[in-house]
Design brief:
The chain is mainly α. The protein has one domain. It contains five helices and no strands. The two termini are 22 Å apart.
Length: 145
């Protein structure tokens, strides 16, 4: 594989990661907005204490998703700039994705094969491809702006 091809694939993967991260952040906003709605809907009912707990948990989950999305965007932008630490983070996260996909397959989710294939490709591309290693160690292709 040529350096320019590796750089293009890297850029495409980073852009797809940014798009996915934006969706994670949108989910976080929706969950954050849903927490107070749940609490106000059931305020004054017999289960108000339990509902308040659910609303609080939803708020924490929403905040976590927002932070997670922002961190993933930062990693993906760093991937586009060919930062080696970002390559390593993506390898680790993809390895976790492979474990999750295998677990889902064992539980009978046949569609997890897609997640397994995508994560396996990402691991191969960033961890075992010598051209990509060269690209991230200061190859001839300048980082994307």
């Amino acid at each position: 594989m040529e350096l320019s091809t590796a750089a293009t694939i890297n850029k495409v993967l980073a852009i797809l990661g940014i798009i996915g991260s934006v969706f994670v952040m949108l989910a976080g906003i929706l969950v954050l907005a849903f927490g107070p709605v749940v609490m106000s809907t059931f305020a004054g009912s017999e289960e108000a204490a339990g509902i308040a707990l659910v609303g609080s948990i939803l708020s924490v989950v929403g905040a976590f998703l927002l932070i997670l999305g922002a961190v993933c965007i930062w990693v993906d932008i760093s991937l586009m700039k060919q930062k080696n630490w970002a390559r390593i983070v993506v390898i680790i996260l993809s390895a976790l994705g492979v474990l999750g996909a295998v677990g889902s397959l064992v539980m009978g989710d046949v569609f997890a094969i897609f997640s397994l294939a995508i994560n396996a490709f990402i691991i191969w591309f960033y961890a075992f491809n010598p051209t990509v290693k060269q690209l991230f160690s200061g190859g001839a292709i300048p980082p994307a702006n």
